[in-house]
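does this look right to u?? GDP-alpha-D-glucose version
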Amino acid sequence: MQLRSFRLSLRFILPLAFVLSAFAYAVVPLMDNLTLHWFIRDLDIRSQLLANTLQEPLLDYVPQKARKKITQLFDRAIQDERLYGLAFCEPGGALLYKTGNYPESIGCWMPQSSDEKRASLVNLPTGPVHVAESLLNQDGQYLGKLILVHDMSFIERRSADTRKYVITLFALLAIVISLITVFIAHLSWRGWMSGVKGLLRGDFLLRPESRTPPEMRPLLGDLRALFNEMNRELEARGDASQLWTPDKLRALLQGELAGDQVLVVSNREPYIHVSTPKGIEARRPASGLVTAVEAVMRACSGTWIAHGSGSADRQVVDRNDCVRVPPDNPSYSLRRVWLSKEEEQGYYYGFANEGLWPLCHIAHVRPVFRSSDWEQYVSVNRRFADAVIREARTDDPVVLVQDYHFALLPRMVREALPKATIITFWHIPWPNPESFGICPWREEILEGLLGSTILGFHTPFHRKNFLETVDRYLETRIESEASTISYGGELTRVEHYPISIAWPPEPASAESIAENRADIRRELALPADHLLGIGVDRLDYTKGIIERFQAVERMLELHPEFIGKFSFVQIAAPSRSSLDEYQNFEARVRNLAQRINRRFASGSYQPIILKAEHHEQEELTRYYRAADVCLVTSLHDGMNLVSKEFIAARDDERGVLILSQFTGAARELHEALIVNPYHIEQGADALHRALTMPEVEQRERMRSMRTLVRDFNVYRWAGRMLLDAAQLRRRERVMSKIRLHSRRSLRRVS
Ligand code: GDG
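got this back:
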């Protein structure tokens, strides 16, 4: 601390010393001039006085030509140490009398003049002298002139002395100012430090007004944000050093949330039972949300409440509308909620997918808002909230609400179960306040979400957008650094939890990569060395499928040597197909694929192999493992799990990932080839680079990304959210005990 205050002071003292010395440097010549001027004036007066004193005797002696007396007079006069020499000149200009050391070079130097006296400085080889003349007149007759020469060397001596004094004065001044500065800096540093310490100790929480000095207050926010961020980083690193597994997650649930009931609510169910000619089959839907949350539910058996949408769903449930899943290893309950066609149309297709989905994804598709859809959305949220309330065995279950289909449900559940811990995860991006502001029911949606205890987004950017949106449209108190929103006396913590996939990846492939490569190429009737790209998506306009095909086309244009040697397989699971926008999109995708295929056709060669149908997860894994490059070119995506699935599938550490910069995943997977999907040339270049990338580079990139996906897996995603929830629950329980205790004490006192 001492050292710091010393350094701090130095920062002030050095410039001060500089300024003072510059000042002294400028002032000394000024002082010299001034003193010289004074001394000259002084000598002028002295010369005049002396001349006046000498004039009287001279008026006697000169006419008498009394040489001796004049010499004696002069000798007496120059006893004065400053008077250097004296001389007398006759009117004709001849030097009549002079003292011994009167300089010859001066002679009778001044021209005659009518002036009484004239004076000047003369530089002699021995130094400067002051020369003055005084005219001697008697009864109007000019008798000659007296010349007085004064020594000036004393002036130089005095000037040197003055300079010395001025510099000493400035040096003393600098020292005094410096000492005062160090002293003040030291005091204020101590005050500042004790202020900072106070902030960190949380004094401001106790008595904000009195304990936090006003000047510290702006700093408070920054410091807290910084420490929170550091803390999060430390936690993240600490977490990453231990691998999160299903067992660890289970242990956490048993330890931290012992006996607490976990309920999940989502629109999409994790298993859909469909009638097929072979009987009833259970299918896993194509959904990133399902992929992630299913892994959590397997670890912490609870109840998952979802819309029963399969053709055989009703046939397999018990009388409480529940069925145990997964079918091959039942570990949790799936509770189905039945929706009418109108409800599904208005709530799911209408408000959620024609309104909120395009609203939150900036993908240039206009959101559609209809009042009738909104009414269905409100009523379906109510129905699901009622299902949660009915399923709750205690008054404080942990409720995990999934996605944009249930923005209103958190508040509805909160009103019925005030002690519930409601964790809402928003799986899609959150737009900026202006974009969100066009929603006619923006306040209701925000109020609904603020019923949550914790609200999670994939990235800090989406979290920030949400805070700004709330700030813009609701009267709340926002602590941006602590990331909490206080609304109607309730606190919601807004966090970012990047979602991921299970590790080790499921399902594990029984085949080797070489077998996968060979099999897939055989199935596609391609040569064994044919280069393959892969894309896996729901058929959705946000996924950038059109742009991806255009990049493939451009790459073949620029590098025709790949024609016939490279094909791109697009697996496109049908999605929301009853909506016009999606039907149009599918048609555009099909047309583009056909056009490109026609353009580069030769024999059976197809540059684009479009598989617009649902695939089983095992099948997807085989494609991931068989591919040389995976293209993820979303125009906007909360996270994107396909990119992580591709990485997880590549235990050979080969293959290249091309990843859109507009995915949440791009924040984590830096070793991917990051592209702007709108920039077709860039996509084409990246594809060419991927296809020609040396194996060593592929391995390095893939290895690093695999480590990240392994460490930051879905168990960690869920674990961190649940840990935060457990911490809040503990705090809440302690607080309610304190409240109870103080109520009792008050009662006793009264
Ligand atoms: C939302 C957000 C966020 C695809 N086709 C099939 C199939 N899939 C699976 C993939 C992957 C999942 O669907 C797609 O996940 P994404 O993350 O790419 O995208 P969304 O469905 O839009 O998910 C997204 C995610 O939620 C999680 O929070 O990452 O940003 O938009 O798992 O493998 N699965 C099966 N058959 C297919 O044909 N079985």
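Residues 226 and 481 are 8 Å apart (CA to CA). idk if thats expected tbh
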